[in-house]
Design brief:
The protein has about 100 residues and is an alpha+beta fold. The chain has helices spanning about 20-35, 65-75, 80-85; strands at about 10-15, 40-50, 55-65, 90-95. The protein has three helices and four strands; from the N terminus they run βαββααβ.
């Protein structure tokens, strides 16, 4: 017998913004956080400046299911945030958690 309980999806890591784009990223991140937290299935969503690396943003996300995470990815990929941060290096780890 298998457990049919959907697994939560956790994303952790960081994004590096070039210093010449930092003002635009800082301005856009407020709406990005608010829109994401309002999504169905978002348990937690944090994007915070790294205290040690200028231009680095630490990212921590938790969604109630793969479907909720996939919905977020689709919405975010078509957002102003995606346009502003296009091409910025991201280092993320995505895991399933109970």
């Amino acid at each position: 017998m298998t457990d049919a309980t959907p697994q939560k999806i956790r994303l952790t890591g960081y994004m590096d913004a070039p210093l010449d784009k930092l003002d635009a990223v800082n301005a856009a991140v407020v709406d990005h956080i608010a829109l994401t937290r309002a999504e169905g299935g978002c348990i937690s969503f944090e994007v915070t400046p790294c205290p040690d690396v200028k231009g680095r943003f630490l990212v921590s996300e938790l969604f109630e299911s793969r479907a909720a995470f996939d919905h977020h990815q689709t919405r975010a990929s078509q957002s102003e945030w995606a346009e502003i941060t296009k091409g910025m290096p991201r280092t993320y780890e995505i895991t399933e958690v109970a």
